[in-house]
Amino acid sequence: MTVAARRIDPDVWTKEQFLAWADAQPGDGSYEFDGARPVAMAPATLGHTEIARNIRETIRARLPAGKACRIYGPQQPIETVGGALREPDAFIACSAPSRTSVAIAAPIIVFEVLSPGKENRRRDEEEKVDEYGSVPTILRYVLVESESRAIRIFWRPPGERAWRSEPLDEAGPLGLPEFAITLTFDEIYEGVDFG
Predict the structure, then answer these.
(1) pLDDT tens, residue by residue, 82-114
(2) Which of 80, 95, 153, 157 is most deeply buried (CB count within 10 A of its CB)?
(3) What's the CA angle centered on 176, arms 159 and 103, to 5 degrees?
(4) Three-state DSSP class for 35?
């Protein structure tokens, strides 16, 4: 897959313009930067929030000791193509950012919990697949459903550019071989009632 070329637009923002603008916004909204303009993020459902928290807490307890790897999200951005800043629900990076860093460098595994809404899903399932594919350190992009127990994984071996894809049914488990971690669906969806 390739990232679609953006048309030249005199009103395109720079990353620095976006960061200055975002810093001046009231605290009740969340925005990503698509490399051209701010993109308002839909408020997360309780189920979405619980799933993302479950992922972060389960991984945090299982990351190998002695490595500088951490789990981040949902408010720390990663930089993708064209200076875009995306805020995944969770991601693992093994870089050593400074206290004043805005974006976290060298993410390895990225999780997006899919929100209801056609535009939100399109962004996560199409645009971000391409964007995250442009970051050579990202080896695994995990799409987690928030309205059912289902996961889709995009992955690639180190050094390869093309994604491979596979769905997981509700039996799971979700393997993260880059860190020798396995998450069960029960752990990911703990406390979420689909009834």
Answers:
(1) 889 999 999 999 988 888 888 999 999 999 999
(2) 80
(3) 65
(4) coil
Nearest to 92 by CA among 59, 122, 118: 59
Contacts of 58 (CB under 8 A, 6+ apart): 183, 187, 188
Domain boundaries, the chain: 43-188
Q: The pTM is what?
A: 0.87
Query: Which structure tokens are listed for 169?
Result: 């049914």
The residues, ordered by sequence, that sit 6+ positions from 74 with a Cβ below 8 Å of its Cβ are 52, 87, 88, 89, 90
CATH 3.30.565.10, domain 43-188, yes or no: no
Task: Count other C-beta atoms under 10 Å from residue 78's C-beta.
Answer: 24
